[in-house]
Design goal:
By secondary structure, this protein is α+β, with helices and mostly antiparallel strands. It is about 30% helix and about 20% strand. The C terminus is likely disordered.
Length: about 600
């Protein structure tokens, strides 16, 4: 929507910074007042401001998985409730995946903001609530066959009406959660952030005036749209295709699911067509439309100018074709809890693969692409109270044109923080026996993939119910332009008194070794979680010898790998290694004669 009122660039910058900082302050309020570790340690939420047309004016840099979905949850909420039915002090809650949402644990709260009796817009946040009922502790039924097994599903409903709690709705919600106290605390942290945003917006509107702030929002969106179109014009016109595969869905053994995308670039517009993707799965590896849109926007924001203001204008030049009834656009009553946490990042990787043939210098090789979703709960032996937790681990990121991938970092969909071991052990009955970076798990390349991690924890309670939803355990993250595959991940159990690490399929007969739910383990049992490494970028033979020397010194490569993979010959002197520069030059000269020209070759027909 264009506006005739023009705001000078200084004022526009001040208003944009104020709105973004308001969203950041909302997040700080949530972090400081929430009950669950996924809120106050993981920061698995996003905070946003919309104008009265339901267009996003600003958001803060929290969880990318939610940036697309909240656009659609906002639009759906307005359409379903009606603008005329939003009163001052009303707050709506919504977590329905079929109404524009991500997956069931993501709850959105939205409040209308009035200034001197006139509607300015809406403030809201979307956050991962740890426990939402359903068949599995922690709201992550990895073997669900329909949405009704995934938890309590809420259409847009008012939980606060004109400033007063709607007690009947609160009773229904909390009676369906295993940990009502924690849910109550997290929900009120979300509500508290709305109070912060409302106060800040009133201060801004009082200072600059209603019309000025509203017009500034429209102008910011037009500006972001123009900047994004300029970025797309720098991508060569053409069609670019790529595939990747989900290993299994947690229900049907040994069946893979294809994520296919064709990116079509035409001048200042880009279309992502997911038509070739597999029909939706029986299990919960499906994505909602909101998840696929979020992943698409996430990929584009990662390969374009980071200084573009983040608002609805960024997304206007980006179109999607996402057929219903596929793994990237689930139809009712298909389950979808795994799509947001585990498949979003796979879609981002696919889009990087698509665009590697067009802008190789902007994309990265595949990430480990697993949040290592590990859910658990039960009766805490110290408090005799029910507890539940949603735990995630980082993975290796892919190498890129400008350098190596990061080690054991939360996947690109989350931007979440790791829960410190001290906090983890204080709140939950586990002993962390090992937590480390797995050396040499990143894919070899001119720029190495980042390494994954290994975590071993021992159950300290008599019984704990655990669930898992993880991927990239059969095939590692693919490399680009001659880069090699990263190491795959694993989840294993060692029963008390046994010295063998075994899969959950071997011990409990689960359909999938890495996607399962509601397994009761006993005190003294140990769980081992290994996250996947990232893929390498570029031929290993082109890596700087000095960097290979550092890899050997840091345990990321052996002297034999330096010779055989990187064509770098090392000699040991006085207990340390150095590069034999003359021998290395000769070896690399010979290897260069057989190296293909990788750059600009694009994707692959199938990654398996």
């Amino acid at each position: 929507m264009k506006t005739d009122k023009s705001i000078d660039s200084v004022t526009l910058t001040i208003i944009n910074n104020y709105l973004v900082n308001t969203c950041r302050e909302m997040g700080l309020a949530m972090m400081k007042t929430s009950y669950s570790s996924i809120f106050n340690e993981g920061l698995d939420f996003s905070c946003v401001i919309f104008d009265r047309d339901g267009e996003m004016v600003a958001y803060a840099e929290f969880c990318p998985a939610q940036i697309g979905a909240i656009l659609y949850t906002m639009q759906w909420t307005i359409a379903e409730i009606g603008l005329e039915n939003f009163k001052p002090g009303d707050v709506v809650m919504h977590n329905d995946p079929y109404r524009g949402g991500c997956h069931m644990p993501e709850h959105t709260v939205i409040q209308a903001v009035y200034h001197n009796g006139e509607l300015y817009g809406f403030i809201g946040n979307i956050a991962h609530v740890t426990e939402i009922g359903g068949k599995a502790v922690g709201g992550f039924a990895a073997d669900a066959k329909e949405v009704y097994q995934e938890g309590l599903r809420l259409p847009p409903v008012k939980i606060i009406r004109e400033g007063e709690p709607v007690e009947d709705i609160w009773k229904i919600i909390l009676e369906n959660h295993r940990t009502p106290r924690t849910s109550w605390g997290d929900f009120h942290a979300m509500l508290g952030s709305l109070n912060v945003a409302e106060r800040r917006l009133h201060e801004l509107l009082d200072r600059y005036g209603f019309d000025e702030v509203l017009a500034a929002g429209k102008q910011l969106m037009d500006y972001s749209e123009a900047r994004m179109r300029a970025e797309i014009r720098d991508i060569p016109n053409g069609e670019y295709q790529f595939d990747d595969w989900i290993e299994n869905d947690g229900v049907v053994p040994d069946k893979r699911y294809r994520i296919n995308c064709t990116a079509i670039v035409e001048d200042e517009n880009i279309l992502f067509d997911y038509t070739g993707s597999s029909p939706q799965a029986r299990g919960p590896c499906n994505c909602t439309y909101g998840v696929t849109a979020s992943a698409t926007f996430n990929a584009m924001l990662n390969i374009t100018d980071q200084t573009i203001p983040r608002n609805s204008g960024c997304y206007r030049p980006i179109q999607l074709i996402v057929p219903p009834g596929t793994v990237v656009n689930v139809k009712h009553p298909g389950p979808s809890v795994g799509g947001n946490s585990e498949i979003h990042e796979r879609i981002v990787d696919v889009l990087f693969g698509c665009l590697s043939g067009a802008v190789p210098e902007r994309v990265a090789a595949a990430t480990g692409a697993s949040s290592c979703n590990f859910l658990f709960g039960g009766i805490h032996p110290d408090t005799d109270q029910y507890y539940a937790n949603y735990h995630i681990d980082g993975c290796g990121w892919g190498g890129k044109a400008t350098g190596d991938g990061n080690h054991t970092q939360c996947p690109i969909n989350g931007n979440c923080r790791n829960t410190p071991v001290e906090v983890f052990e204080t709140r939950y009955p586990w002993l962390t026996k090992r937590y480390r970076i797995v050396e040499d798990s990143g894919g070899h390349g001119q720029h190495r993939g980042g390494c994954g991690s290994e975590r071993i924890i021992e159950a300290l309670a008599p019984e704990i119910t655990v669930s898992s939803f993880m991927d990239r355990h059969e095939t590692g993250a693919w490399g680009l332009f001659g880069g090699q595959e990263g190491a795959s991940g694993a989840v294993r159990i060692r029963k008390n008194g046994d010295n063998r690490w075994r899969t959950f399929s071997e011990v409990y007969g689960t359909a999938s070794p890495n996607k399962f739910a509601d397994i009761q383990i006993q005190g003294g049992d140990e769980i081992r979680i290994v996250s996947p490494g990232g893929g390498g970028y570029g031929p290993p033979e082109k890596r700087e010898p000095s960097e290979v020397l550092d890899d050997v010194r840091e345990g990321l490569a052996s002297p034999e790998e330096a010779r055989d993979i990187y064509a770098v010959l090392l000699v040991q002197e006085a207990g340390d290694w150095r590069v034999d520069e003359s021998a290395t030059a000769n070896l690399r000269s010979e290897r260069s004669k057989t190296l293909p020209d990788y750059i600009g070759t694009g994707g692959t027909e199938e990654v398996s």
